[in-house]
Each structure stands twice: as C-alpha cells, then as structure tokens.
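Can't paste images in this forum, so I'm doing it all in text. The chain is below; anyone willing to post the predicted structure tokens underneath?
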Amino acid sequence: MKKRFVLIRLIADFAFLFILASCGQPQSGAAPQPVGNLAPPQQLEDSYIWTIGLDPGHGWQGDPGATGNGLQEKTVNLDIALQTKTILESNGFRVIMTRTGDDSNDLTQAAKVINAQNPNPDLVVSIHANSGGSGSTATGTEACYTVGKSTDTESKRLATLLTNSISSKLSLVNRGVFPENSDSRCARRASTGWNQLYIHNMNPPTALIETAFLSNPFDADLLKNRGADFASAIADAIIAYLKNVEAPTASPPIALTSTSVSQPPVVSTSTSNVLVIDTSGSMDDALSAGGVKLDAAKDAGRKLLDIIGAENEAGVSANHEVAIVDFSDTAIVDIGFTANIDSAQNALSSLYTTGGTGMPKGLQAALDLFPATLTGKSFIILLSDGQPNIGLNDESDKVVVRQQVLDLAGEAGRRGICVYTVGFGDPTATGSIDENFLRQVADASGCGTYHNAQNAWELANIYINLRHESTGNTLLTKTGDIKQGENLEIGNAQVPDNQAMMLFTLNWPGSQLDAVLTDPNGKLVDMNYPGASLLTKNNLVSIIIQNPLAGSWNVAAYGAQVPEQVINYNAILSVRPNPNPPTPVPVTPTPVVVQPSGGSPFAILIIVLAGAGMMVYVITLTGRRARTQGLPLYGSPAVLVGLNGTYAGYSIPVRDGFVIGSSFACALRLSDPSVSWQHARLRFVNGQWYIQDMNSKRGLYVNGKRVQAVPLNKGNRIRVGSIEFEFR
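Text version of the structure:
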C-alpha cells in the first residue's frame, strides 16, 4: 500500500509540474493586476478620481488604544487600513492616510490631515477595534455616525454599509449603527459632557467603524488572521457608498466594482411618500371583526412605514422620505417629509377622528409639501371611507368639492406626483365610498390606481402592495391560509437580468410565520446572504436583496407558531430594474494552439494520467487524514445533546457556521416562542469551538450565564430560549 501511494504521488507531482510548465506566462510590460478581486477601472483621461480618507484609530502620542488577547488596537487598525489602501489604490482610487505609523501629534491631527487636502476626500472611514473590558463576552461589529452636521445623512449611510459589509463577509453579529452622542455606544463619556467623536471635525462624510472586539477570543482571532477580509469588506462598503454619489465633475467617474462578486451597480431611486388619511367622524365606526376604521388605517400605515424603514436601513439606495397629512373639517400636516421612520410612526399613532370630510384640503396640504423640483419618485396615498363634503374654502356644494379634488389630482400628475386612492368600506352601503369617483381621482394623476378594502386585513395588504406597485415590477402575489407547523410552498418568481433590488414581503395578522426564500442556486436567504437585509416587525417580514441573481427564486413559508391552527398570509415579491444597461463583456476567442505532428496524443495522455493521478492522490490523502486525525471537514467532532424539549435525548452533530433559531432556514429549528428567528451560531476557529449570540431577544446562556460569544468546552450547558443542550 505504501509503494502504491508513493507511485500515485509521483504521478500527481509530475502532472502538477507539467501543467505549470504549460501555463502561459504574462508578457513583458503587461499592466499590473489589481489587488484583491477588484477589476481595474476604466481609465478615462478626464475621469474624476475618487479620494478616500482612511483614519487608523489611536497611535497618537503613544496611545495604544484597547488591548486584548495579545493584540493592540492601534496596530490592528493600521494593518487593516494599509490593506484597504492597497486594494483601493490598485483600482484607481486616491487614498489619504491620517497616519502610517505611530505619530507624536495629538488626536486632533487626524482631522487636520483630512481637512488640509484640496479638495477634501469624498469620504472618510475611521477604523477602530472594540473592547468590552475584562470578562466581557461582547462580540460583533458596529459603527458610529456624526450628528449636527450637513453630512449626517451620508455619514449614517456610510456607517450602515460598513457594518452590513463586515457582518456579511466575516459572519459577525451586526450590532447596528449609532449617533456619535449615543451614551451607551459611541460617546461612552457623554454624561460628563463629551458628546462628539473626533471625526466630527472632519469635513467630508465620515463614519467610525468598530470592526470587532479585541476582548473576545473569537473576534480577536478574526482581527489577527483575517485582516485582508476586513479590508476587502471596508472597500466593498466604500464602493457601494460611491455608487450613489455623483462625481463633482461633468466627466464620467471611474468604474466601481465590488471586491467580492462582480455585480452591476445598485441604482435605486429615492422616493417621497405622503399618507393622506381621512380622520372624519365616520372613521371611528366599528369593524365587524373588531376595532375601528382609524385603528386599521394606523396599522396598515405602520406596515408601509416598516417597509420603507427597512429599505433605508438596507443602505443600498438614497433615503426614502415619508410625510403624514390627515383631514376632517381642516387638514393637518402631522409630520413633514422625514427619513426618521420612528418619528413618522409616532405621528401616525397620534391621529384621532372628528368632523367632516375635507378631502380637497387634505390633498392640497399634501401637494404643498413637495418641492417645486422633484427628485426621485413621488407618491400620495389617499385613504377615505366616505365622500368629500367640505371644499377648500368650506364649500358644501357636492359638485364643486369633487371638482376641486379632481383638479388637485390633475395638478399632482402634471408635477410628476402619482395619486393612489384607497376606499375603505363597503361601496354598496348607504353613504359609503364612491368607487367611481375615487377611481377618477387616481386616473386624473395619470399614474395612480384605485383600491378597495372592506376590512383591516385587506387594507394592510393594499398598503404593502402599493409599495411594490409604485416602486417596481411585481413578479409574485399570493394570499392564502397556512397551518401550524406547515411548510407551505408559495410559488416561484422569475427574476430578470440587471435588477438593482428585490423586495419580498410576507404579511400575516398574528402569531409567527417564517419566510423561506431560496435563490436560483438553491441557497437560502438569511442575514449572512450577500446583499441581503432582513427585518421582521409587526407581523411583517421584509427582505431586501441588492443585485438579485437572475433566474427562478422559490418562495415558501413555515407556520412556526399558529395557536389559531390556521391564519391568513399575503406574500409579494417585486424587483426594481437597474436603469443603467449592463455593460457588454466582449468575448475574446481562445486561440487554438496546433501541436507538432505526433506530440498531441502524448500530451493528452500525460494530462489524462496527471488528472487521474491527482484525483487519486487527493482522495487517498484525505482518507489518510480522516483515519489518522478523526477530523470531519468542518471542525473537530462535536454534538449537542438535548436535555429537554423536542430534542431531549437526541445527539445533534454540529459544524462550523451551525445556526440555531426558530426560522425554518436554521440548521437546528426550535419551535419555542422564546427562541429568536436566528438565535445563536456555532463557529470552529483554530481548533476551538465558539458560540455566538445573534442579537436574540431573550439572550444566549452558557452554564447559566448570559453571553454574547464564548469558547465552548465539553460538558458546557447551552440554553437557547427555554431549550437546553449539553455540548460534547
């Protein structure tokens, strides 16, 4: 057996040398290849060259920053910054470093270096590492953005892109983004009067990224051994940010390409949305299924706002703004245009009923909110349960009042604002809505549609559908029933090429459902899926995917917790096309090399033997390693043994990246109301098993202590929700 193995290895080695000798060598004088996976940008003589500021935190006047697990923060930060610089510069960017080693100046020098550039950098990323102190199990990545500056919105967008990119590439918990004066995160000394980070004094849009925790062994190992991946993730975020920034020159900017996967640029138009809501006295009428009309309108509005908020948090496009107007005898602007969804939710919650139906006043107030020159797409969603009876100047003539509404809708259309109308109630009931009139109002704008809802469930689905309908192309819509424990196949959606974004929503009236979305390659979408952002709130799942793969996407749902045994669901999937056509890739024909007479059969024989020999060698070597070391592919053998619940007494093998949660997509799914959608993850790094909390609501416990990320040892007891396991 030993002689056979040696012979096989000799054949494989010979094959390797043969293939190596046959490979073409780069020609003398060839252009240098880019570092990482970035494609070289198209160099136009008058192209705008983006300038990026990189600020490696600490290292000023001997400040080492945080320390932990044998690492110093200043060194880690500088290492990642230098690798990021190399990636960017090799692809045509100009990079400004605030320091390239230890510096005798004080911290204020960082801002001075940035602001002294003429012109200033287009953005600045301040690179830091976090620390939770001795005994802390904190893990993950987070970022801080500036407040009180004209660049705050861009700072937050950059911060969001940084955390999303690092979380995805490094499989780290995304702890979120926070304002620089957040006492619990960025400005930990705000209570003593310190409420600004030093990046506040930098002129360009600037975000401070806390890459990972030096105090956590798992995070520290990533910082020590995968600095290149952190650098690549930061470069990806910078590129994603610049795709939505217009270069300050009429000349075309250099091409921007992701460091991870070659994708078309994300172009998603910003939107301005006004909810115009009837708050006349009849909106206090009771619904047959319980509650009153106005409460149903508030709930439907909340779901629409949740989707818009999810789009903003995804960080893939310009901000989407909302405003709320209500009308009765008069019109009230409850909140003007804002991207702060929490503030809009509060304004929505404050609505109350009174008086008559001054629909023209509500529509006029909404139009007055829009600027003279519109950017992006603009919409008005007009909800009413009755017929207009009060005019702009308190007229009561029905014909006059209706004509005012139609005239205002026509004005909206001429200004590029679409008016969608929603009639809430039974159109056959006396004194109820006039469907023909509301349809005329939508038609008058030239781009709106009319919808009717007769209960709260239908109203919520209409509002959700309007987000899909008004911003993209709907590929799948389905409403039906789902049972407790049912794995329901909803359908497939054929996504075309060159789509900037995909939006999937799953809505239900109560309990808990899991959305199961699978891409054309059979990969389940979760929080670590490239370009994906997931939000579950108010019985609504919103999944946003940048640059979705073309092909057939499968949509399914799982009835995780349905005490009623059966409930309704509504699933919608839409896409938003990229307005930029894909760049055609020229196909270069492969030259055919004619071998000398008599040489070709021998070369083919050698290649075949080499391939066979190498395959046998790999298989043999793998088998030897498995027998001698007893190691599976993804780490040392480990199992979770259930101590209670459904899996009591069961031994469950685990692998690196093993996720536990209530989602159907998890490797270990637990049907327990105290278990989060994705609760915890097991990792195997450098011969050591770890377990991480994935921002669960109820926490992760090891040996009775709540943790965020800790090493695991045989015999440790793990509690996820109310379910316990022993690690072996």
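The mean pLDDT is 81. The first strand starts at residue 51 and ends at 56.
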